Amino acid sequence: MYPSPTQLLALQKTQIDALQAFGSTVFDATEKLAQLNLATTRTILQDGVEVAHNLLAAKDPQELTTIGGNYAQPGAEKIASYSRSAYTIASNASAEFTRIVEAQIAEGNRKMAEAFEAVTRSAPPGSEHAISLLKNSISAASTAFDAVTKAARAASETAESNIAAAVAVASDAIKAKTKKTA
After folding, report:
1. How far apart are CA 153 and CA 160, in angstroms?
2. Is this structure's pTM higher than 0.90?
3. In the chain, where the domains are located
């Protein structure tokens, strides 16, 4: 059984749609990251000017130390916030890529099952054992793919929760350190 021109066109359209979805996801993530970087750079510049003015206005070394300590915690919190935002952008893009790939694989599996059914309908008598073996192989491959996908999702969720916990611990440590120096 050979694919018809209509089937080939449908396959090409599906592939083009997937490429467009990938491109759109990359563009959106890049745009969000660029906006985050611009906003962060603007904030850093504004804060730097403010700190410089305050440091230049200091009357003695004790005041210099106090001013520096006053900006440590907010600066660390801004770094943590930036990291969370950048990670969220990357994580969302990764989830979208995963969704696109999984949809493509599901569609490919569906089409392969349809083609396999068409072949089995026209299979010669006596080939039932070979067809059964092939069906079992396809089923095992599908099950293995599902297991790998679930494991990858679990690993991603674990990594996300570990990163969130690490950021929380770092933020708490910075707050505690800042309170001690103040």
Report:
1. 11
2. no
3. 5-181
